[in-house]
Structures are given as structure tokens and as C-alpha cells.
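Researcher: Here's the sequence for the chain we discussed earlier.
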Amino acid sequence: MPLWLTLVVVAQVFLAAVALIDKYIVSSETVVLRPFTYTFWISILSSGSVLVFLLGWLPIPVFVDGISIPTFENVQALTITTFALSLTTGYTFFTALLSMFTALKYSDASDVVPVVGAVNALATFFLGYYFFDTSLPHNFLAGMLLLVAGTILTSGLRFTKQTMFSVFHAGIMFGLHYVVLKELFEETNFDTGFFWSRMAIVAIALSMLLIPYYYEKVMARTQRAKKRDSMLLIGNKLLGGIASIMMLMAVDMVDKSMVSLPQALGGLQYLFLLGFSVCCGRYISKDWGENVTFRDIVQKAVSIPLIVLGFFLLFM
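Model: Thanks. This is the structure I predict for it:
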């Protein structure tokens, strides 16, 4: 197996594990964090990603043309446009996470995550086509039909109205987040867009504390949190970060003609979630939320492969 493919597979295993831990954190009775508080702290921890800028001061060699370590020297001052775009990226990211975690609280991770991914992919393509006049991939129609079929099969049979709203809202907001982030990069440069978008996510999270109801909710849950809860949150954030780095490394390793393949294989995460649900669902506690009756298994065995295949066609 090529090294880049190994990295993709391992990264998708990690991302599947991240989704399952997310599910456990927001729904377990033994963990006091709940969707809003968890979203708040995940958003605050996003500021840690700017530590990569410190590497810009070190003599690290660059082996690939066009790729460099972000540096504070390249970060431009905010303008009205970049300020508005940054705040939009922060708001869309925060609300997308909140909706996804809310859905995870009430439904299986192997149902929620694939549908959020499908809606996100479709929203990103449509929004990019509308705002940037980008061309749609030649397999777009076939991929879209498969994603829609898998999404309808899951949402119609597995979700309540509340969960369905949360899942679709999360997918659309994630799509909008990436489209606005792309516009922010185009308006400035990568270093500036990355830095201010991370700061905006933190600012949006902190602004929630100005609302007494949310302030009391975050403070009460945080004060009751145990050391194990904090370790779960930080560890899961690190695991997701490692998976992201591995995906970037895989993209770096593949030939230019195959550059979209690692992203197309992102649907493997959903297959790993399906495998976990089928193989382990009956042996774990209800906190993980995997229902494995015969009807559940049949539904997931049909809908998830449809979404995975649609995902593959969209990015190939």
C-alpha cells in the first residue's frame, strides 16, 4: 500500500474515532459537557492552531514549491472587508458545530456524520458555483443523486424533525464556512485568512458569554467538569488535528493528476463508522448511541455506501 494511501486510511480511522468521541461527550450522563458548552470550548481551543505561526521563525526547510510555514510577518491588518468575512467564518463554524453536536446527542454518529458530510459537500459545490462561477465536476449529477438518495434514506427513516433540522443546518453552515473562508483567502492571503478566521471563531465563542443564559450554562457545566472530561476534550481535538495533518501530507505526496483522490477517499470515515456500528454497537453502552437492530443495520448498510460513492464521484 502506498504511503499516501496509508496516511489517508489512518486519518479516516482517526476522524471516525473523533466523531464517536464527540457523540460520547455530548450524550453521556457521566460527562457534564453538553452541545453548547462543548462547542464553546472546541471553538476556544481553535486558537491553538495559530501556534503553527511560531514555526515560521525557525529555519525549517520547504521541500514543495508554493508551500511555506505561516508567519506573523505575512498577516495583514484587518480591513472592513476582511473583518466582515472573518466574523462570518467564525459564526458559521460555531453554529455548524453546535448543530452537529446537537444532532449527535440524539442520534447515532454513523447516521449524523455521513449526512452532514453529504449536505456540506453539496452546499459547498452549489455555493462555490453561484459565488465564484466555478465549474461543477463532470460526475456532479451522478454524485449528487447518490448523496441525495443516501441522505433521504437516512433522514427519512432515522431522524426526528429536530435532528433533521440540526443535521441539514450543520451541513449548510459548514459549506458556507468553507466558501467564505475561500473568499477570505482570495481577498488577502492564506496566512492572514487563517489567522483572523481562527481569531474570529474565538471571538464568536467569547461573545456568547455576554448573554447571561449562555454564560451561566457554560460556567455551570465547566465548573462541574472532571479532569477526565477535560482530557477527553483536549485529546479529541488533538486527534482531529493529527488526522488533518495526515490528510495534508497525503495530498502533498500524490501526483498532481491524483491530487483529488485523498479528498475523494474522505468517505472512508463513514464506512469505518458503519463497521463500528455493526461490529461493536451491541457490545457498548447506550452513551455511544449505535442502534443495531436488523432494520438499523440494513438501513445503514444501504444509505452509507450510497453517500460514500457519491462523495467519491464528486471529487474525482
